[in-house]
Fold Branched-chain-amino-acid aminotransferase.
Amino acid sequence: MESTTTSDIEIMLSSQSKINEVDFENLTFGTVFTDHMLVCDFKNGEWQKPVIQPYQPFTLDPSTKVFHYGQAIFEGMKAYKDEQGDVWMFRANENFNRFNKSAIRLAMPEVPEEVFMGGLRKLLHIEKDWVRYGMGRSLYIRPYMIATGEGVIAQPSSEYKFVIILSPAKSYYNQEVKVVIANHYSRAANGGIGAAKAAGNYAGQFYPTKLAVEKGFQQIIWTDDATHTKLEEAGTMNVFFRINNTLITAPTSERILDGVTRKSLIDLAKREGIDVEVRSLLVDELLNAAKNGTLKEIFGAGTAAVINPIVGFAYEDLYFDLPKIENSMAMELKDKLNKIQYKLAEDTFGWTEKIE
Amino acid sequence: MESTTTSDIEIMLSSQSKINEVDFENLTFGTVFTDHMLVCDFKNGEWQKPVIQPYQPFTLDPSTKVFHYGQAIFEGMKAYKDEQGDVWMFRANENFNRFNKSAIRLAMPEVPEEVFMGGLRKLLHIEKDWVRYGMGRSLYIRPYMIATGEGVIAQPSSEYKFVIILSPAKSYYNQEVKVVIANHYSRAANGGIGAAKAAGNYAGQFYPTKLAVEKGFQQIIWTDDATHTKLEEAGTMNVFFRINNTLITAPTSERILDGVTRKSLIDLAKREGIDVEVRSLLVDELLNAAKNGTLKEIFGAGTAAVINPIVGFAYEDLYFDLPKIENSMAMELKDKLNKIQYKLAEDTFGWTEKIE
């Protein structure tokens, strides 16, 4: 192995790469994984030595706590290749910080920076060939942690496994997205775990989303659970509304994920002189804006899709198509963000980090 | 094997039992498992043949959906041995029905009755020796289902594993339980998954409970997340309050689990002529009752502990000890319920089913 500052990470390389078996032109998101993964176990009250090893299954007892009590958190971010063939991470440090906030909320141990960030840098260095150049192409990074202690008693686990797996990706959503505004189901409680990237937050969304899909929609715009009057998230993404030339997105809270794409878009929009309001848009305001023609755009923002324009929404018995517009802020911001990610424009924010 | 109506269940018996290695006098709840488990896989849109096999670990890909999106549900119930050595299930059909309600809410496939109930009966028949006679002794039954499909995209899995494992148990809580009334954190949202026995509901409780433990309490009494004025559950149990001679327990809702012990206690109390009110008790009512001496008892109700008396509670800066009373309704109801479970009293409700 090359000499890098990884004396504290054990590296076991795969004897053979499967990269030549992968059709990079036809990738289904999140289904193909690279040759290696990082694994670090927490036991006896401390993190053990992280290991980069061939991608391989885990062997877990049927009483493993993640199966029963849901202590499981994750992150999602991407690495990109530039025209020169260098690989860049985008704001991975933000994901690292959020991961540990999720860990605290789920009563799981925080992962040390040298394990999460140090391990990730080394893993990306080893898997550089899996990042392909070209707009929309990326290597999706999935760090996660699960409770691996055994025993069916509802108490926090004393053992955990931190893992990073990598999946080559092309663009995420291709279809036109129509959404339903939630008026009964919800994704997060006040004082709950909605701000954590916890596995349990996702499972609860599937059934309401299935009901929406059965009615011809693809996603749900979630509202606050107490009153269903405040617009909060779109599917598994943050959500932005453009009324006239103002962008509006909900403030982060215990119910809303502090999305890295969301905050990057807010910064980018401000730099571009776009008026951004971080406040709760009310359902009534949205309906009025749709009726009087001032509602121009709605889009989701998240790592997987970056920006996902919404073409129409339903609320109770009403349905509204979004107007087709020339100068879409969603498309402008997506383009500017992509150019930073692919190193095609100057990164004035310091968001990108080169993998050496 | 004996001839039973299990031609549709494949049975692979362990070559050697580990029962003689188990110290039944010193059992930690949920840590010792019997020789066999039932496993049934769902794939290609249908349930495969259930298998009773030696208790053994699972091999799962790092991208398995239960690790990432939290599709995981479970049940908990008990089997008891009577003086004659016969084994009885207690209201297992209620757990079966609730399991499938949880499955629907988590967008998981419902488990057929012949797999859940038929498999359970056969498994208990095989493991009869693991049920010991004596008050407080039981065999804890843990059916659960996890998403076993692979891929890190936030969509319902297409593959699942249904499992039943069994754990011999003695009584659950021994310590005196003091609780904190939640005024910030919460366990369930309106329109959320609080009524489902979903893994994700438990992980979210651990951190607030840890904060309570650090202050010298053992559990939290959860309140509604929107106003924190309605008393809803105690830890992972339903909760009953006795004011004067009236028992009060919250109605089931989207936020509250429809507990089998809870509903059994309501029926038992009514049969005994105890006044039961199924309504939301308000925090203010509780504080007033504690101050004016009409609050007599608080207890949690759930399968693991059956009834768990609470000896004191804190609310913000206030602390109240519960009075020590002679004629405890909690103890009376627990005794009557236990006698039905152990077949020491007539089961006028038809709650018990003999394992043949």
Observations:
- Residues 1-5 of chain B have pLDDT under 50 and may be disordered.
